[in-house]
Amino acid sequence: MTPRFYITTPIYYPNANLHLGHAYTTITADVLARYKKMQGYEVFLVTGADEHGQKIAKKAAENNQSPQVFVDYMVQKFKNLWEKLDINYQQFIRTSAQSHVETVQKIFTLLLQQDDLYLGHYQGWYCIACEAFSAASQINKINNSCQVCQGKLINIAEATYFFKVGKYTKQLLNYYEKHPLFLWPLHRKTEMINNFIKPGLNDLSITRTSFTWGIKVLENPQHIVYVWIDALSNYLTALGFLQADDRNFKKFWLEPNCEIVHIIGKEISRFHMIYWPILLMALNLRQPSAILAHGWIINEVGKMSKTKGNVIDPLILIERYQADSLRFFLMKEMVFGNDAKYSHELFLNCYNSFLANDLGNLLARTTAMIIKYCDGKIPTITLTKITNNETDIIDKIKKTISDFKMLMDQFHINEAINLVFELITVGNKLIDLTKPWTLYQTNQTIALHNILNLLGNILVIASALLSPILVKHSWEIHQQLGLVQIIMPTGALDLNGISNKVIKNPKILFPRLNIKTELTYLDNYFNK
Ligand code: MSP
Predict the structure, then answer these.
(1) Residue 264 shares a structural domain with residue 308
(2) What is the pLDDT of residue 243?
């Protein structure tokens, strides 16, 4: 049976343009989805827009638009960005879609019928920016601001339906304990337990009555469903849960051979690691395989965010340097789970060092030598005549392939990339060490052919491994080497599989950038 992989991003608020932080999350999900697809999985990637709630209603009003008209416009911008970034999603879920609205209403009815909800009154602090009722540990008591986003908290007092989450606490803790890889990085689990569960989980207010932009509770239409319950449900509604066509739900949630992974930013861990599993327990549904919380992109002002006004628009970088360069930078520089810094300088230096110098150079040198010394055809390797160094390189290739898989399976994308670049460095060093031009001049044909064949193989394997990240350029490398398909390499190496392929249209893959010129360009652009 084909293994399946269901992967999701958070659905983003369409109250402002997306920035590099959102791009990072979505690229991570896309890279993992592409990787799994190459491993033979049937993959379903969902991203989307979280369109309801007070924050969106407020923003639409500021724009003198109805919330629906406003979010329709913003969603087009989201989709445009994902297209430019080569995000290959299977479903874009919008919480204002009728199918989603109806399913959330059904979920609410189910919870009500099974006595998980009761009508009461909420009084306490609320953060509109996070759309969150603030737990005591999240309030900065000095000025009543939110410790997560530093935004001002408002005091709300309104009738509400409460979800009896406390009743599931024990089951949740048991689940954590029995599934050590459920929450990742591991310290998030400790944080959830110590900050939120141990102090006692209050019943969660899951409806609001003081505004109307949201999903109406059928049983009591003055109430609208709390935006986080609405939003979290997207992971099910995107698959057709409780809808007429629920084939994807059966395939990607119910079947046991499906791996389910949610990628989120660390600031929304509480919702995903506590309330989401509890909601699934209440619905009697299986849990995801893993919930992975990544760190933030930061710069000198702190977390990149719309409220701080320190955002970088990914479209500017894509237009000038192409999507692959940005995908590569974010995947190479961010250690999953940790914060990492963005600066134009870091981005440009990463491009020049790894893409232009290491990978680009290896391709340019190799294709030029194959054209000059072998009439443009990749030569055959004679395994009976290889040197010890070449045997070591073949072992290194095999080890790179198996270690890459191991690391990607554990979501260590940046380490996996580093391994591939070690291999690329081995290729560049092989050229420096063996000086193929002298072998040509002295007619050492077999030795020359062995080296050029190995270099071709390193390029094919490195670019195939990097293809979930460098979507267009890996394909370009394959085409330059005369190949018509990218195949995920396995341990069963056939070094002569590329022999006699004809080099086609060799050209510079990643032109070297003049850092000073580019910095001036970017600084002008972003400070405008
Ligand atoms: N709508 C909710 C999510 C609901 S999911 C059921 C939401 N939306 S958001 O527009 O605020 O997006 C938050 C997400 O954007 C983060 O969880 C993270 O994935 C991404 N990021 C936003 N800023 C970021 C950084 N500075 N760095 C990295 N990722 C960041 O929360």
Answers:
(1) yes
(2) 98
Residue 13 sits in which domain range?
4-341
What's the predicted TM-score (pTM) here? 0.97
Q: Residue 384's domain is classified under what CATH number? A: 1.10.730.10
Q: Tell me the per-residue pLDDT of 204-229, one tens digit each, with 9 for 90 and over.
A: 999 999 989 999 999 999 999 999 99
Cβ 385 vs Cβ 446: under 8 Å: yes
Mark whether 288 and 433 lie in a shared domain: no
Characterize the bridge pairing of strands 224-225 and 183-184. unpaired
Asked whether the beta carbons of 278 and 249 are under 8 A apart, the reply is no
- Let me know if residue 465 belongs to a domain: yes
- Of 276, 309, 341, which marks where a domain is finished? 341
List the strands of the sheet with 297-299, edge to edge.
302-303, 297-299, 340-341
Q: If phi over 0 gives left and psi between -120 and 50 gives alpha, with beta otherwise, what is residue 493?
A: beta
Could you tell me if the CB of 10 is within 6 A of ligand 1? Answer: yes
Q: How far is the CA of 22 from the centre of ligand 1 (A)?
A: 6
Does residue 304 line the site of ligand 1, with CB under 6 A?
yes
Quick one: which atom of ligand 1 is closest to the CA of 263?
Answer: 19
Q: What is the DSSP letter of 268?
A: G
**Do both 216 and 252 map to the same domain?**
yes
In contact, 267 and 148? CB cutoff 8 Å: yes
* Same domain for 406 and 318: no
- pLDDT above 60 for 118: yes
C-alpha–C-alpha distance, residues 181 and 209, integer Å: 38
What digits encode the pLDDT tens for the residues 469-525?
A: 999 999 999 999 999 999 999 888 999 999 999 999 999 999 999 999 999 999 988
Round to whole Å and give the CA distance between 387 and 361.
24
The answer as to whether 503 is a domain residue is no
Q: 315 and 351: one domain? A: no
Which numbered atom of ligand 1 lies nearest the CA of 231? 6
Q: 13 CB less than 6 Å from ligand 1?
A: yes
Does 137 have pLDDT greater than 80? no
The per-residue pLDDT of the chain, averaged, comes to 96
The answer to whether residues 260 and 313 belong to one domain is: yes
Q: Can the peptide bond before residue 185 be classed as cis, meaning omega within 30 degrees of 0?
A: yes
Assess whether 331 and 452 both reside in one domain.
no
What tokens appear for 217 in the block?
A: 């509770």
What share of the chain has pLDDT > 70, as a percent? 100
Beta-carbon-side half-sphere exposure of residue 294 (alpha carbons within 13 Å): 30
Cα separation, 487 vs 38, in Å, equals 7
**Total Cβ atoms within 10 A of residue 370:** 26
